[in-house]
Amino acid sequence: MHVARLSLTDYRNYERAELELGPGATVLVGRNGQGKTNLVEAIGYLATLGSHRVSGDQALIRAGADAAIVRALLSHGDRELLVELQLNRQGANRAQLNRSPVKTRELPRYAHSVLFAPEDLAIVRGEPSVRRRVLDELLVQRTPRLAGVMADYERVLKQRNSLLKSARARGLAVDKLTTLDIWDERLVALGSELIDQRLALVAELREPLAAAYRSIVDADHAPGMTSLLSIDGADPDAEPEASAAVSEQVSGTRERFAEALRVLRPKELERGVTLVGPHRDDVVLLLNGLPAKGYASHGESWSFALALRLASAELLRRDSMTGDPVLVLDDVFAELDRLRRDRLASAIAGFEQVLVTAAVLEDVPRPLIARIVHIEAGHIVDEAAAEPDAEPEPDPDAPSTSEPEAADV
């Protein structure tokens, strides 16, 4: 699959933008703050229903506008799909597929992309929430209905936390909270599905992760992933005494989840918050059997993050009926040394469409400079194919050798 045309209306700093794209590599070049990332962020939103830079939608709508529209023509073989999304400042967002209304959570079924960004270093070095989000975004692209499951879980979690806070404020005893049992049942049903889906995904990622890491580093550092589940007493955020001591005789995710809630109910009432569930889980990333977060160097951390993105792309490529996901590299090459730049460029060379943003064209490996688009102050000012006979800049460190009107969506 590739994006054949991208149209934006009142999105970020773009009043109107129309960009024709095609298979192969395209480099979006411009100084920082001109709008390069905004273009690729819009494509990523269609695939993941979220931005890699902000948690809410309001920042995506241009100042003074009531809504932003993202429209993408997706091409796969002889088939084309027009996907449209309207982000509203007030009210629910709206979506269309070939001009027919659809639920917004259906969009990841048709738009697949994997985005590499400088923020990816936080996958290795950041908080558990970053790693949870990476897994959940991939789950939604592979199984779009899980977006609804995740939204339902968050609603139930919010209601349960409100009840716990209210009970704490009123000084209610544990045995008086009969209504909590109803929320517990729903929390366990939804949360257990998310836990099982994440566990299965982690298992699937291990092999392509190892292969991707070797392609970038050309060394076997035994990269791995291990899930830490709060329902088994492995909550990385809770105080030690709040960990659930789940009986070894309890098996099955639902049973362990329910047992953890039972054991922790006094602590939850005391603190007014739900202490176990997929919202408090983590994934430990390993190199040579040690946690990468504490032991990996800067370069190893970057390689791990890149390898995880590549592994995600391989899973989408393998499972998708629409072919390759669109690969987006947002100002990544400026963060890498020359060796990792070249290895990453080689690793992604076989994908149908690659979009690269860069402030300096020289940062981008020559094999990815097939087409150049210049961006300035929210405008596409110049589009051109790279000159095929142009010689790359010499490396001084190398040894010497011989838009239309917005639709009502």
Descriptive tags:
409 residues, alpha/beta, Glutathione S-transferase Yfyf (Class Pi), Chain A, domain 2, six-stranded antiparallel β-sheet, six-stranded mixed β-sheet, single-stranded DNA binding, DNA damage
Spatial order of the strands forming the largest sheet? 2-1-4-5-6-7
What coarse outline follows from CA principal-axis ratios?
globular
* Low-pLDDT ranges: 240-249, 389-409
CATH topology of the domain at 116-319, anyone? Answer: Glutathione S-transferase Yfyf (Class Pi), Chain A, domain 2
Q: From N to C, what is the helix and strand string?
A: EEEHEEEEEHHHHEHEEHHEHEEE
Mean pLDDT: 88
% residues in beta strands: 15-25%
CATH architecture of the domain at 116-319: Up-down Bundle
User: By CATH's scheme, which homologous superfamily of the domain at 116-319 applies?
Assistant: RecF/RecN/SMC, N-terminal domain
How would a crystallographer describe the biggest sheet? 6 strands, antiparallel
Radius of gyration: 23 Å
Count of distinct strands? 15
How many helices?
A: 9
Quickly give the structural class: alpha/beta
Binding site for ATP: 30-37
Family: Belongs to the RecF family.
GO cellular component, one term: cytoplasm
Biased composition (Acidic residues): 384-396
What this model shows, in words?
With 409 residues, this protein is α/β, with parallel strands linked by helices. The chain has a domain at 116-319: Glutathione S-transferase Yfyf (Class Pi), Chain A, domain 2. The chain has helices at residues 36-48, 121-125, 128-142, 146-170, 179-217, 253-271, 292-295, 298-319, 338-347, and strands at 2-11, 14-20, 24-29, 67-76, 79-88, 94-97, 100-102, 113-116, 224-228, 282-287, 290-291, 326-330, 353-358, 371-376, 379-385. It has a 6-stranded antiparallel β-sheet, covered by helices on one side. Strands 8-12-13-3-14-15 form a 6-stranded mixed β-sheet, sandwiched between helices. A 3-stranded antiparallel β-sheet has the order 9-10-11.
